[in-house]
């Protein structure tokens, strides 16, 4: 027998929140795919120098987002169907998946907070290793490949150097940043600052998406429990 009164209102509110949850899953999936194929990050993270690949820690969070977005769409559909059908079994399964997703999101948030500076630091270290070889006046065998790596950084981020304008840097900056005029050098930021800025923006987007999803999930868990209790207590349900 169909629920009535306030429980019926909860039923449609749960359906509405599940539909928003499903849409949020699609948006997160789209944002994650955008971050995965964004030209700035892709150009930097595909680089190789002296047999070492550029650190790909950033992609771990992106792949997690892709998985979460896909699962959210599936779970959101399950919740919508369970609410309309007033099925305790489907709603119970939906609640179980919500709890698992919420726990995973909290764990991912803790990991992200603890490693929030790791991504930019790893790429800064990668940049510095190429920078040292590129400014080496003794002419190391890997100097040409180091200059090519730095060129990708400088072109992608519109930056030049580490920010410490040493005498050695002044001698080689025409080679490291051939596309920049004297005025451009005065206006340009260091690549260290640009890397920190780039990944801070990306992680901010990821954190904001996670916060919105967490709020929606809390409301859904509350409404699911209320609706299940309402269905159990409805006349004709034993």
Automatic annotation (TrEMBL):
Localization (cell): Membrane
Main location: membrane
Protein origin, superkingdom: Eukaryota
Listed SUPFAM superfamilies: Tetraspanin (SSF48652)
Keyword Transmembrane helix: yes
GO cellular component: plasma membrane
Membrane topology value: Multi-pass membrane protein
Annotated family: Belongs to the tetraspanin (TM4SF) family.
Protein name: Tetraspanin
Organism per entry: Xyrichtys novacula (Pearly razorfish)
The organism's taxonomic lineage, starting at the top: Eukaryota, Metazoa, Chordata, Craniata, Vertebrata
């Amino acid at each position: 027998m169909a629920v009535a009164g306030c429980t019926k209102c909860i039923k449609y509110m749960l359906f509405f929140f599940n539909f928003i949850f499903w849409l949020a899953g699609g948006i997160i999936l789209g944002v994650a795919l955008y971050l995965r194929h964004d030209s700035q990050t892709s150009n930097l993270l595909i680089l190789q120098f002296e047999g070492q690949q550029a650190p790909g820690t950033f992609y771990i969070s992106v792949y997690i987002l892709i998985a979460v977005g896909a699962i959210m769409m599936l779970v959101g559909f399950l919740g919508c169907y369970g609410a309309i059908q007033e099925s305790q079994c489907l709603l119970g399964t939906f609640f179980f998946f919500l709890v698992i997703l919420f726990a995973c999101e909290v764990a991912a948030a803790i990991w992200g907070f603890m490693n929030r500076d790791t991504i930019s630091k790893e790429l800064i270290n990668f940049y510095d290793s190429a920078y040292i070889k590129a400014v080496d006046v003794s002419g190391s065998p890997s100097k040409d490949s180091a200059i090519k790596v730095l060129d990708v950084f400088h072109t992608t981020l519109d930056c030049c150097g580490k920010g410490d304008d040493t005498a050695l840097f002044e001698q080689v900056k025409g080679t490291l940043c051939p596309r920049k005029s004297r005025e451009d050098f005065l206006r340009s930021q260091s690549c260290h600052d640009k890397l920190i800025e780039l990944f801070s923006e990306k992680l901010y987007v990821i954190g904001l998406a996670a916060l919105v999803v967490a709020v929606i999930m809390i409301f859904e868990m509350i409404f699911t429990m209320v609706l299940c209790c309402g269905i159990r207590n409805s006349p004709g349900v034993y």
